Amino acid sequence: MERTLKLYTDPISPYSGVATLALLEKKVPYEPIHVSLKTHETKSAAHSERHPFGKIPVLETVDEQGGKMLLRESQAIARYIAEKYRAQGVSLLPPLNASSEVIGRFEEAACMERNYFTPNVWKYTSEKLIKEALGFGPPDPVELARYFKEIKKALTVLDKTLGTREYMAGPRYSLVDIYYAPWMKALFNDAGHKELLVEFPNVGDWWGKMCDRPQVQKVFELMGSGTIV
Ligand SMILES: N[C@@H](CCC(=O)N[C@@H](CS)C(=O)NCC(=O)O)C(=O)O
Which intervals hold domain GST N-terminal (predicted)? Predict the structure, then answer.
């Protein structure tokens, strides 16, 4: 039986935002432990013991016998929380008796985020908001245009999908919406691309519903408006 949850996190990190949002939606108490991205604490010896690639977030669970488990990778953490706490908070997964078709569609939506949307937002926001701050020179307009084109391609597909369903993976809010949320914030708010909400109106409607959720508001408040690392 699990007793304590610790989340090694830096609130400005979108990947940590995914894990945090899952914990908040499932009403799971946890202790946040700050691992600073700015001071490269992710690469310290202590953190390398927690994550072999020196990344956050990491979730640490301790059972009643004192046995520890470290779980790495934002989506693995969010999925663990959604599975373990199925009975509390909002449901984030297909029901246990879901058809193969529903599960297939759910995983398809998750893969779309992981493979076509977020990697391009990550590259775009890194180029636009972080590169210069780290001393690697000004943003390269050619690279920015290349990533932005890919982002718009992904949003075109998403807008079509969201014309047929309320949320990313189906009629209900789910884990997949959580995967998208911090990266959409990075694109619309931090990188200043709110015009995309008009250009892609179904994405705009979805974003409106997301921003109405108190848990989403809380995570965005924690993330602040700083740069993303
Ligand atoms: N695939 C990982 C990516 C985690 C990741 O890249 N985290 C960033 C912060 S958003 C990080 O720890 N960067 C620190 C570094 O690379 O030193 C996940 O989903 O958790």
Answer: 3-89
In the predicted structure, residue 1 carries a pLDDT above the cut 60: no
What tokens were used for 67?
Answer: 């046995």
Please report where in the chains the tokens 């408006």 appear, as a residue.
225
229 lines ligand 1 (CB under 6 A): yes
Q: Is 15 in the pocket of ligand 1 (CB under 6 A)?
A: yes
Task: Give Cα separations from 46 to 50, 54, 121, 126, 178 (angstroms).
Answer: 7, 10, 30, 26, 29
d(CA 180, CA 168): 9
The three-class DSSP label of residue 91 is coil
Contacts of 106 (CB under 8 A, 6+ apart): 93, 94, 98, 169, 170, 174, 176
92, 173 Cβ separation under 8 angstroms: yes
Report pTM: 0.96
Residue 66 has pLDDT above 90, yes or no: no
Residue 164's contacts (CB-CB under 8 Å, 6 or more residues apart) are none
User: How close is the Cα of 22 to the center of ligand 1, in Å?
Assistant: 17
